[in-house]
Amino acid sequence: MAREYAGRLLKTLFGLFLCAAGSLLGIQANIGLAPWDALSVGISKVSGLSYGTVSVWTGVVILAVDLLLREKIGLGTLLNTVLVGIMVDIMQSFRLVPLLDNFWLGVPMLLAGQALLAFGSYFYISPGLGCGPRDSLMVALGRRFPRTPIGLVRGLLEGTVLLAGWLLGAKVGLGTVVSVFGISFLIQGVFRLFRFDVKQVRHESLFATFRRLEKRSTEA
Prior knowledge:
Layout lengths: L1 H28 L5 H13 L3 H18 L6 H19 L9 H23 L7 H12 L5 H18 L6 H20 L12 H14 L1
């Protein structure tokens, strides 16, 4: 069982790394930010904190809301909350990806970032260790308003986040439109490629993970 969890954990971490790399490319493409990136960048501009720091604290706040809404929290949820923002900061510190000022170069960079996010979503969701705090919030709100289509819930949530980011000074443009609509198609394509049905995943809570590992260590 320990080996099984190690494999699931490594797969989750790899997925989170891809998500961080995808977010970085989207930011550095400089043609318009995805909603949650816009919020983090906007707060960063106002507060002077790094993108990663803002992303982590935003995730913590959302995580608290998820808990209040009684949404299941897993090990993957906590790792997502903390690591993605930190990974983006680390990659930015090495300046491996320049901030572009050319729209036509920004478009392929943004699309590459979206592709990485799509693959990252598969790798971090498929082990069943929990969705990220933002996805969990969408699911929790969907449960609270069962008569409202989940697409509308996501649209209203991301629209509110995007508006807040824009008001705080984050860049909104064509890249934002591509991010909002393109990621759904890319994720669908990646899931089909791996023959992965996200609806069949039964995420394991953090407490269930600890109980199983504790039981295993006791038996050993």
